[in-house]
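We emphasize that the prediction below concerns an isolated chain of 191 residues; any contacts that depend on oligomerization or on bound cofactors are therefore not represented. The input was used exactly as deposited, without trimming of termini.
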Amino acid sequence: MFKLDKIELFNVNMDYLKALNTIDSEVYYINSIVYENKPYVGVLVNNDGLDYIIPLTSAKNKHKNWKNVSRESYLIFEFINNSDLGDNDIYVSQESSDIVKKIISVLDIKKMIPVKEGLYTKIDIESIESTNEKYADLLNKEIFFLRDKKQSIADKANKIYIEQKESGVVKQFHCNFSVLEAVCKSYSVSK
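Result of the prediction step, given as a token string:
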């Protein structure tokens, strides 16, 4: 069973992500310098010895039609004045024409991946703040939004994980946890 003690953000080793993506294309991975900074939320501590980490993905137009909370994801959003929107912001209009729901990102629980010590590092938001205040602000908003949802996140992760393990069925757009765990266990941290 998973438990989540604290909402923190992490970066995952790119070589490790590439190895996982080679085995399971549902693992988020793009060979890009920008992608090295992709944040993951976690760590979900598992009693079976392997920890998991959940990816965040940036807002996309398709997310406008998603529920705020589903069985496998959370939309991370804020309500802002329409006049404060940027050119590339993803938003949903509200009844009041002055306020919109700006989608910041999505916590994609069905894409969680196993990790072990040495394959992830905690993101130091304070050090980012001095060089990229806008990005640090985004990370802080994500943490703040998810902070009081940690038990629900762990519950959803457990349900998805147990259902897949017990049935042996990997649903569409879900990571294959058994295959990824095999890669994680054999992956050398020194790579």
